[in-house]
Amino acid sequence: MNHIDTVNFDDLPASGFVRQSQLIPGVLPFSGLTLKRLIDAKSFPAPIKITPKCKAWRVGDVREWLRNPVGST
Predict the structure, then answer these.
(1) Where are the alpha helices (DSSP H) in the chain?
(2) Which residues contact 72 (CB under 8 A, 6 or more apart)?
(3) The Cα angle at residue 32 between residues 45 and 71, in degrees rounded to 5
(4) Among the four 10, 38, 65, 66, which has the fewest Cβ within 10 Å?
(5) How confident is the model at residue 72 (pLDDT cuts 50, 70, 90)?
(6) Short-list 46, 51, 60, 65, CA closest to 17
(7) Distance CA 56, CA 9 (A)
């Protein structure tokens, strides 16, 4: 499988990075389209451009959002 289950996600360092395929469907309870809508609405942290074709999220940012999805960036 391409995604990280919740247990493995919890073991990652906060400074680590995860890609969308690692977040959905295992960590985030919604689709990629919903993720894009949340990012566009500034309701979910934007990904960081690692290379011109690779974007990822900081594990710590995703954890913060999961703790407080309404009040996060």
Answers:
(1) 6-11, 20-23, 32-40, 59-67
(2) 43, 44, 45, 64, 65
(3) 30
(4) 10
(5) low
(6) 60
(7) 14
Domain ranges of the chain: 6-67
pTM of this prediction?
Answer: 0.81
Residue 35 contacts by C-beta under 8 Å, 6 or more apart in sequence?
20, 23, 24, 28, 44
Q: What is the pLDDT of residue 58?
A: 96
Taking the C-alpha atoms of residue 46 and residue 65, their distance in angstroms, rounded to an integer, is 11
Distance separating alpha carbons of residues 33 and 12, to the nearest angstrom: 25
Q: What tokens does 70 get?
A: 């309404």
pLDDT digits (tens, 9 = 90+) for 3-41: 555 548 888 899 999 999 999 988 998 999 999 999 999
Residue 30 CB contacts under 8 Å (≥ 6 apart), including other chains: 24, 38
